[in-house]
Amino acid sequence: MSEALARVEAVHKVYRRGAETVDVLNGLDLEVATGEFLALMGPSGSGKTTLLNLLGGLDRPTSGRVVVGGQDLGRASGRELARWRARHVGFVFQFYNLLPVLTAERNVELPLLLTRLKRSERRRRARTALEIVGLADRASHYPSQLSGGQEQRVGIARAIVNDPTVILADEPTGDLDRATGGEILDLLVALNERHGKTVVMVTHDPLAADRATRVLHLDKGVLAEASE
Amino acid sequence: MKYLPLLWRNLMRRKARTLFTFLSVAVAFFLFGLLMAVKNGFEAGIEIAGQDRLLTIHKVSIIQLLPLRYLEQIRAVPGVAAATHSTWFGGVYQDPKNFFPQIAVEPEELLDLYPEYIVPSEQRQRWVATRTGAIVGRKLAERFGWQVGDRIPIQPTFWRPQDGDGDTYEFDLVGLYEGATPDVDETQLFFHHDYLMERVGDMGQVGWYVVSVADPERADEVAQAIDGLFANSPAETKTTTEKAFMQGFAQQVGNTGALLMAIVAVVFFVILLIAGNTMAQAVRERTAEVGVLKTLGFTGPTVLGLVLGESLLLVGGAAGLGLILIWLAVPGLRPLVETFLPVFYVPARSLALGASLAVALGLASGGLPAWLAMRLEIVEALRRR
Ligand SMILES: Nc1ncnc2c1ncn2[C@@H]1O[C@H](COP(=O)(O)OP(=O)(O)OP(=O)(O)O)[C@@H](O)[C@H]1O
Ligand SMILES: [Mg+2]
Question: CB-CB: which of B297, B300, B382 is closest to A83?
Answer without folding.
Answer: B297
